[in-house]
Design goal:
- This protein has 286 residues and is mostly helical.
- It folds into two domains: 84 residues, DNA polymerase, domain 1 (Orthogonal Bundle), CATH 1.10.150; 167 residues, Orthogonal Bundle (hpI Integrase, Chain A).
- It is 52% helix and 4% strand.
- It is elongated, with a radius of gyration of 22 Å.
- The relative contact order is 0.10.
């Protein structure tokens, strides 16, 4: 079983899946096979619905979230589908196991008071401040921000476009930058270390690519300094989406720019905020 998992995850890398996705699949499948081995099943041919149901029932007893269990079920289904294609097994034993019901999560959107406080708390650290501003002004994901190269930034005196390249589940798209975002990028580029060891736009003082975990830690610390509770990095993206919908940005245009594959994903932000007295937030229109 372990050898099949190794070949399966290697294939995910060839298909362009991100390293984080591959690691998640590997951990899920290793956990599943560990349970199967404990119950005397070492050959995938001998895996049936009953033993898999026992495994997922065990996960429920561990009080894992429905979302986590659903992800692990997807991992099992994809793995056994792969074995089917190789004709190692004749059927997918995970296909008849149903996903747990997942409660809809209401997007956390920062109020105008909160994102102003976040900006103020970030100002002493110019790099963190600029990153927060860019996430607020473009709505891109933190992973997408880390992968932006100098070639992805097309800028002239008056207009600019940011190219998000296809990577894993991320689709290629162009994001027109508003005036404030352009000024932010120009300020960052003027202070960007000259000794760059890579083409990434966002780098460390030593010229290495800035990692997701480093950015996440910096922003989480800034949330704390600003006194903003229960907020995460992705809430900057949520804020971008909700505020633009509230001020009338076309939902189809917005959905394309932020990379939602389904318009229903964007629609869940509708009505999330209400602007008092038609007062517009400081986030510029696209």
């Amino acid at each position: 079983m372990d050898n099949y998992i190794k070949k399966f995850t290697e294939g995910l890398g060839t298909d362009g899946k991100s390293i984080h996705t591959i690691i998640a699949y590997k951990k899920d499948l290793e956990q599943m096979t560990s349970y199967l081995k404990d119950h005397g099943v070492t050959d995938p041919v001998n895996v049936d619905e009953d033993v898999l149901r026992g495994y997922f029932d065990e996960l429920k007893k561990e009080n894992l979230s429905a979302k986590t269990i659903s992800r692990k079920l997807n991992s099992a289904r994809t793995f056994f589908k792969y074995l089917q294609e190789l004709k190692i097994v004749t059927r997918n034993p995970a296909i008849l196991i149903t996903h747990p019901k997942i409660s809809a999560v209401i997007p956390r959107v920062l109020t105008e008071l909160e994102y102003r406080a976040l900006r103020d708390a970030a100002r002493p650290d110019r790099r963190t401040y600029l990153i927060i501003e860019i996430l607020l002004q473009t709505g891109i994901r933190i992973g997408e921000l880390c992968r932006i190269t100098m070639d992805d930034l097309h800028m002239n005196k008056k207009t600019a476009t940011l190219i998000i390249t296809a990577y894993g589940s991320t689709s290629k798209r162009e994001i027109p930058l508003n005036e404030q975002a352009i000024d932010i990028f120009k300020e960052y580029l003027s202070m960007r270390p000259q000794i760059a060891k890579c083409d990434n736009v966002f780098i460390t003082k030593n010229g290495n690519p800035l990692l997701v975990r480093n950015i996440r830690t910096s922003i989480d610390n800034t949330f704390k300094k600003a006194g903003i509770n229960n907020a995460k990095v992705n809430d900057l993206r949520n804020t971008f989406i909700a505020h633009h919908l509230a001020r009338g940005t076309n939902i189809f245009v917005l959905s394309k720019i932020i990379g939602h594959k389904r318009i229903a994903t964007t629609e869940k932000y509708l009505g999330k905020i209400k602007l008092a007295n038609d007062k517009m937030p400081t986030l510029p229109v696209l």
